[in-house]
Predict the structure.
Amino acid sequence: MLKYNFLKSWQPMQGNNTPGNVPPGNIIQRLDPRTKLALLLISFVMVLLPQGPAVVALGSAAVLLHLTLARAWPKLKPVRWLFLPLALFSLGIWSWMAQGPSPLFWRVSRESVAFAAANFLKLATMMVAGLILLATTPVEELFAGLVKLRLPYPGAFAFALALRWVPEIFATVTRVQEAQEARGLAWEQGTMLTRLRRHLPLLVPIFLLTLRRSQTMAWALEARGFQMSPRRTFLLEIRLQPRDWLALGVGAGLLALFITLHLWGWDRIPGLKV
């Protein structure tokens, strides 16, 4: 009975089980975290190898299919505003730096625009691929997967703790802002420079509260004997299942296809000079 109550109380703590997260039990979420890490690496290679936007778009389409199977489209809403600045940055920088034989205006050519579009797709696709991993993998599972991959335990623990710490910092910022609003501070009044100046006093309490929580976390780890024993046991055990081998096989097939296209030169932009 005690074991049942402990496991029942532990289940809500298995990662990011907050409202709005990916529904439990979908096909991507049930994969082993090592499989998800391998698929993330394959996604990166698929979009980084090709030069032309058409082949990069194929990799982007595969990642979007991955996103659909993971039912993680709602997770794109908080970061969708990043895509427009990313597109403007890519088109502005790479269109000017690259050169081609088909000029459009000034130093911009059709080949350089295609190269800039390909780079935007690469950056956006890698961002979406990383989002899929974070949206479908609880921190505890990701931590266990890193340890199974022979990553040193302190490094894996620090990585998992950093993922946990990001929402804590945002929550601290929100609490400090609400406390200042309750004291009559108006954020939306005045010019842009005035509003930026009003945010400066937030830095001190946010910094102090973050340091206080860090110190509390360090004390909690010391009280629990962190790293006192070189051999560790885990409540969460992970094993590769047939669905993981199937996903890895599909990923390996896609990777082989993109490597073949790259070796044959079908992913190049003719005449492009970078």
